[in-house]
TrEMBL record:
InterPro entries linked to this entry: Cu-oxidase-like_N (IPR011707), Cu-oxidase_2nd (IPR001117), Cu-oxidase_C (IPR011706), Cu-oxidase_fam (IPR045087), Cu_oxidase_Cu_BS (IPR002355), Cupredoxin (IPR008972), TAT_signal (IPR006311)
Region of interest (Disordered), ranges: 29-53
Domain annotation Plastocyanin-like: ranges: 73-199, 240-323, 417-503
Descriptive protein name: FtsP/CotA-like multicopper oxidase with cupredoxin domain
Organism of this sequence: Streptomyces rishiriensis
PANTHER family assigned to the protein according to its UniProt record, in alphabetical order: MULTI-COPPER OXIDASE, MULTICOPPER OXIDASE
Gene3D superfamilies with a match to the protein in the record: Cupredoxins - blue copper proteins
Keyword hit for Metal-binding: yes
Length: 509
C-alpha cells in the first residue's frame, strides 16, 4: 500500500450433502439475484427463514475426493464435500445455528508439547470472520475445539449459535476453521465459505438491480492430488498454489455491455495476497471487509490480503474476453466475457455507508510483527513473534528477552485488555526481514485505518484485515463496542499464526 490518494488506499480485495434443516436453501430473492449465468458456478445458498429469523443448518467436515477440471483429482478436507462450503445468508437480528459434524479420522497419537507447533489437523472450530458478534460461548469462540471421534469411521457433533445484532452492518463476511495449530492446513485444503449479511445497501436501487455474484477465491497447496499436513516449516514452500474461484479453475462469467454486476470477492487463501485487476474495466468499489462506503470509488486495481473482502460493481464494457488477474499479472482467476444485447444500467452515486470519523484517542498501543529465522531446532526453526505493548513474557521469567519463546502466543496470557467505548490509536510495525508478509487481523471489531508508513490516508477506510508493509507500519483507530470476553489478533498468513504470531485480546467494560 503505497499511494496516499484514495484510489490507492482501497487495497483492502455438484450441490453438497448435509441438507439445510429449518433454514431455506436460498431465499427466492437471494437466488433470483444470483441466477442468469449457469456456466459460472455459485456456491449453494442457505438462507435464514423469513418468518423465524433463524438459519439452522448442518456443516459436515470430512475428507472428500473431487475431480476439478484443469486440476485433476483432489482429496482434501471440505465442508459438505465441496470447495467452497455453502454461502450462508442472514439478516440483522437473525440467529445462525450450525450443527457441525466432524467426520474426520482421529488425530495421530503423537505427543504435543508446544502449542505453537502445528498440530491436530483433524480438529477444527468456527470463526465468522469479520462479524461483529459475541466472541464467547457457542458463538464466534475460536477457543473451542471440535475434536474428531477416537474411533475411526465414527463422527462427533458440535453446535454453534451466533446471534446477529439488530444493527449489524450489511456486507460480505466469511466463515472458516480457527483451531490454533491446524488453521493453515485446513484453509489450504479449501475449508471456508461466504457469509452474507443482507440489509440496507442491498436496497439501493442500482445495487438491487445488479446480479449478486460471489467470487470466493480458494488457495490449495497440492502434492500428488492432496494437501499435505503442515508437519515442517517447508511443507508448502516448494508447492505452487492452485487458485480456484467457487471451486473451479478459471471459470467463465458473462456480462452484457452496459450491464452492472455486484461481485463479492473473498480472498480465502492462507498465504497469498491478490492484486486484482480486470483489463478493460474499472472496478467501482462499494465496500471493504463488509463495511459499506459512503459512495462508490472507481479504481483500476486493488490489493486483497488473505482474509480480506471487497464488494465491487462491474459494468460490462466493449464486447470481448477479459481476465480478472490476481496473485500476479499472469495468474488468471476468472474470465469475463462481454456479450449479448447492450444494456444501460446506472451506478449509484451515494451509499448508506459508515462514517469514517472517530474522536481523538485516549490511549495508544504499539505492536511489532517480527519473524526470526533458524532460532529453534527441529522441524519448525523460525520464531513468529508479536512484540511491543502487551508482548507475551518469556517462558522463563529469569531468562529475559533471550528466551526463544518470547513474543509467541501463550494459552492463558492476555496480551491486550481493551475497554469498550474507549478510542485507541494503534501502530503496528513489520520488523521482519524474511517471511515478512504479515496481514494484521483483529477479531470482533473493525478498525479505522488512518495512516500507512506514518503518512495519513486521504480518506480513512474500515478494515478487519490489512497488510502491514515490509519494513513499514500501519496506524489505525479502534473503538471496541458491545461485546466483552476473550478474542484474538494475529497474522493472517496463517502458517505464521499457527506458529505463534498471535495475541489474546480481552474486551472489558
Amino acid at each position: 500500500m503505497t499511494s496516499l490518494a484514495r484510489r490507492g488506499v482501497l487495497k483492502c480485495l455438484p450441490v453438497a450433502a448435509g441438507a439445510v434443516m429449518t433454514g431455506v436453501a436460498g431465499s427466492p430473492r437471494a437466488v433470483a439475484r444470483q441466477e442468469g449465468d449457469p456456466s459460472f458456478p455459485q456456491p449453494e445458498i442457505r438462507s435464514s427463514a423469513p418468518r423465524t429469523g433463524r438459519l439452522e443448518t448442518r456443516l459436515t467436515v470430512g475428507f472428500t475426493e473431487q475431480v476439478i477440471p484443469g486440476v485433476g483429482t483432489v482429496t482434501t478436507r471440505t465442508y459438505e464435500g465441496v470447495i467452497p462450503g455453502p454461502t450462508l445468508r442472514v439478516r440483522p437480528g437473525d440467529s445462525l445455528e450450525i450443527e457441525h459434524i466432524n467426520a474426520l479420522p482421529p488425530n495421530d497419537g503423537a505427543a504435543h508439547h508446544d502449542m505453537n507447533v502445528p498440530h491436530h489437523f483433524n480438529t477444527f472450530n468456527l470463526h465468522t470472520h469479520g462479524m461483529h458478534v459475541d466472541p464467547t460461548g457457542e458463538a464466534d469462540n475460536i477457543y473451542r475445539t471440535f475434536e474428531p471421534s477416537d474411533t475411526p469411521g465414527d463422527t462427533t457433533t458440535h453446535r454453534s449459535r451466533v446471534e446477529v445484532p439488530a444493527d449489524h452492518p450489511a456486507g460480505t463476511f466469511w466463515y472458516h476453521p480457527h483451531h490454533h495449530g491446524s488453521t493453515a492446513t485446513q484453509l489450504l485444503g479449501g475449508m471456508g465459505g461466504a457469509l452474507v449479511v443482507e440489509g440496507d445497501v442491498d436496497e439501493v436501487p442500482e445495487i438491487a438491480a445488479a446480479k449478486d455474484v460471489v467470487v470466493f477465491i480458494s488457495e490449495l497447496k497440492l502434492s500428488g492430488g492432496r494437501v499435505p499436513d503442515l508437519t515442517s516449516h517447508g511443507t508448502y514452500e516448494g508447492l505452487d498454489s492452485t487458485f480456484l474461484v467457487n471451486g473451479a479453475k478459471n471459470p467463465v462469467l458473462t456480462i452484457a455491455p452496459g450491464e452492472v454486476q455486484r461481485w463479492r470477492v473473498v480472498n480465502a487463501g492462507a498465504v497469498t495476497a491478490h492484486f486484482l485487476s480486470l483489463r478493460g474495466h474499472e472496478m467501482h468499489q462499494i465496500a471493504c471487509d463488509g463495511i459499506t462506503f459512503m459512495e462508490p470509488v472507481a479504481t483500476s486495481g486493488l490489493t486483497l490480503p488473505m482474509g480480506g473482502r471487497v464488494d465491487v460493481l462491474i459494468r460490462g464494457g466493449e464486447p470481448g474476453t477479459y481476465k480478472l488477474t490476481g496473485g500476479g499479472p499472469s495468474q488468471t482467476l476468472l474470465t469475463l466475457v462481454v456479450t449479448g444485447e447492450p444494456r444501460s444500467m446506472p451506478l449509484p452515486t451515494s451509499l448508506p455507508g459508515r462514517s469514517t470519523s472517530l474522536p481523538e484517542p485516549t490511549r495508544t498501543r504499539h505492536l511489532i510483527f517480527r519473524s526470526d529465522e533458524n532460532v529453534f531446532s527441529g522441524a519448525f526453526p523460525n520464531a513468529y513473534r508479536i512484540l511491543g505493548d502487551g508482548e507475551t513474557p518469556p517462558a522463563d521469567p529469569l531468562a529475559g528477552r533471550s528466551d526463544l519463546a518470547w513474543g509467541r502466543l501463550a494459552a492463558d496470557f492476555v496480551n491486550q485488555r481493551v475497554r469498550l467505548g474507549e478510542v485507541e490509536e494503534w501502530t503496528v510495525v513489520n520488523d521482519s526481514h524474511a517471511h515478512s508478509h504479515h496481514p494484521f487481523h483483529l477479531h470482533t471489531n473493525h478498525f479505522l485505518l488512518t495512516a500507512v508508513d506514518n503518512r495519513r490516508l486521504a480518506a480513512p477506510v474500515w478494515h478487519d484485515t490489512v497488510s502491514v508493509p515490509p519494513n513499514g507500519s500501519i496506524t489505525f483507530r479502534l473503538r471496541a463496542e458491545d461485546f466483552t470476553g476473550r478474542s484474538m489478533l494475529h497474522c493472517h498468513q496463517l502458517q505464521h499464526g499457527d506458529e505463534g504470531m498471535m495475541q489474546i485480546v480481552d474486551y472489558v467494560r
